[in-house]
Amino acid sequence: GEVLLWQGDLASMRGDPQRAIDLVQAATAAHLSESDQAYADALLADTTPAAIGHLRRTLELNPFHHRASLYLSFLLLLSGEREECRQHLEVSQALFPADVNFVAASAVLDALEGDLEAARQRLGERKSELGQAHDTLISTCEDLSRLAPLLTDWDEGQALDLTVLRLIPWIVLRHQGRFD
Q1: Residue 42 φ then ψ, to 5°
Q2: In the chain, what's the furthest Cα-to-Cα distance?
Q3: CA 151 from chain center: how many Å?
Q4: Measuring CA to CA, which residue among 58, 57, 9, 1 is closest to residue 29?
């Protein structure tokens, strides 16, 4: 079951949602640990709040569930749960110090809150590990920090403004060299 769950996770990251759903459902039919079952439930959840609930449960059962920690970070960020996101990212960076994804997420949170200098410093401390992604992340954080004043509705428990959410894919594509 665990291998199917990992394969479903990978299919999701590769942009194949139907295959991801099929694999995760197959994993739930097989034997999974209680924490992996909660994680699978998060991946199959119909809503972001439901997914967040399942991820919290996953981490209650297994605080070292790396994938659940990463997924929860991004869902908290996008749902506007800034304080919980910040606390979760601090814990995750302590538990998984080699994973720069948590550093990158913290920098994005800094930028969205308008603190570009904190984002730059955070990314600068891990520049060698980030490699070429460092410059892309810096540039993305610069763009996101310019959006910070537009985030009037992004407060505890409120999602990012739809206008901002529509701009994020453009920012990513721009930094992949598709737009100038």
Answers
A1: -65, -45
A2: 49
A3: 19
A4: 1
pLDDT in tens, the chain (180 residues): 888 888 888 877 777 788 888 888 899 898 899 999 999 999 888 888 899 999 999 999 999 999 999 999 988 988 878 889 999 999 999 999 999 989 999 999 999 888 999 999 999 999 999 888 888 889 889 988 887 766 655 554 444 444 455 555 545 555 444 433
Is residue 63 a contact partner of residue 95, using CB atoms and an 8 Å limit? yes
Cβ–Cβ < 8 Å for 108, 77? yes
Tokens of 132: 């070429």
Structure tokens, 138: 């810096």
The CA radius of gyration of the chain, in Å to the nearest whole number, is 17
Work out the burial of residue 44: count CB atoms within 10 Å of its CB; fewer than 13 is exposed, 13-18 middle, 19 or more buried.
middle
User: What pTM does this model have?
Assistant: 0.78
Neighbours of 33 (CB within 10 A): 15
